[in-house]
Design goal:
Elements (H helix, E strand, L loop, with lengths): L2 H13 L3 H8 E9 L4 E4 L1 H14 E15 L4 E12 L4 E13 L2 E9 L4
Parallel strand pairs: 1-6
Antiparallel strand pairs: 1-2, 3-4, 4-5, 5-6
Helix pairs in contact: 1-2, 2-3
Length: about 120
Amino acid sequence: MSVLDLAHKLQVMLSKNHLLEALEQFYHEDVEVLEVPTGERRIGKSAQKESLLHFLGMVETVHKRGLYSLCINDDQNITTAETWMEVTFKDGEHYIMEEVAIQHWENELIVEEKFYYSLPE
């Protein structure tokens, strides 16, 4: 399967709020994830799962989410997804969050991912 097909399937799962299932299906056990704005680095699928569970624990409602663009660099097996999500947190804060995720793929799994986004002020 092409990297673009894999990235598209990943985005379909995310659009249905199947974050944990997508993590299990598409991420390498030793994935490295970097949150560029904060500098936080997570190593391993279990560390990424813990981070996702923490995020989901703060969310009251995901109202909508979508994909602006999905790009590919075939030569290097890299995909870039520009996404948005409208969310209300349990503390009552409501945001439209936008981010760019850059994913490096090997053997149909993400081995490295970087997230770029603006932090709320």
